[in-house]
Amino acid sequence: MNILITGAAGHIGSYLMRELSSKIKKKNNLFFLDNFSSNKYNSLFNLNKKTKFFELDLSTCKLSEIPKCEIVIHLAAKTDAAQSSKYKKEFYTNNLPATKKIISYCKKHNALLLFASSTSVYGPQSNWVDENCSKKDLKPQSPYADIKLKEEKLISKKLKNFIVLRLGTIYGFSEGIRFHTAVNKFCYQSATDQPLSIWKSAYNQRRPYLSLFDLTRALAFIINNKIKTNTIYNILSNNYPVKDIVKCIKKINKKTKIKKVDHEIMNQLSYNVSNKKFCSLGFNFKSKLYKDIKFTLEKLKNIN
Ligand SMILES: NC(=O)c1ccc[n+]([C@@H]2O[C@H](COP(=O)([O-])OP(=O)(O)OC[C@H]3O[C@@H](n4cnc5c(N)ncnc54)[C@H](O)[C@@H]3O)[C@@H](O)[C@H]2O)c1
Question: Which of 185, 182, 173 is nearest to 216 (CA)?
């Protein structure tokens, strides 16, 4: 089976380039694609010499330029949710056409699409939410999350063979690591002796998080097993309040301080997302937040 991974130079993709092949059956071939819009050429350092990488922009390339595959893991997108209100047009004109191209590609090759959506489509919810949450109760709070929802709708309307994966906020080290998201940003701030900038009122509020390790195992689980398609799965290691993340960081760097700050994005309000539907297929989320934070801080230990 040929498997295409788009957005391969990114935080998640650069981890998959190194870790996915060892978790799936040997006869699978992996193909990676990115346009380097995030300029992460560093994601290409020290790759296995068999890695097949294509520099292509999904919003402008021809379908015929993309290698033929039977499964697509579609990660390519502009991703800094906090900036998506300011750069709304750039987000809409990149992410939607890229996903439309991938939909056409999957139709042409009859490929299975694994789409990286986000738990941010739920927005603030007073109770636990799962995949049965009705469309009218989804409350995306940023253009980034709104686009994810539009893409989910397009995919379910146009494709017969797809899985929407609503991913929790990623943590963990990769060659293409981004520091926009909570855990990694706090690790960087702690490593550079800056106070952790915690959004006011977010300290006790729980949100869904996902380790790169668990995500890679979850994707391998989907590829290795015939699981139910044409559906949505929440993929998250656990729901944590920010104070748990701070506690882990403080355990490693005792000098860490925090500073409460304002922020325009409201999707940081508390919500707990259930991963039971995916676990009911026989999958266990295994990652430990402390261990991943320790590993990231270890990588940053000489920065000061
Ligand atoms: N990181 C998270 O916390 C998180 C959480 C939920 C969902 N997701 C989703 O997972 C996917 C990957 O996230 P990430 O953290 O690795 O993001 P990232 O920003 O690190 O990587 C995205 C990659 O996509 C590439 N790209 C953007 N537009 C492209 C285009 N038109 N053609 C080809 N390549 C293009 C970029 O150059 C970049 O390397 C995204 O769709 C994101 O929305 C991420």
Answer: 173
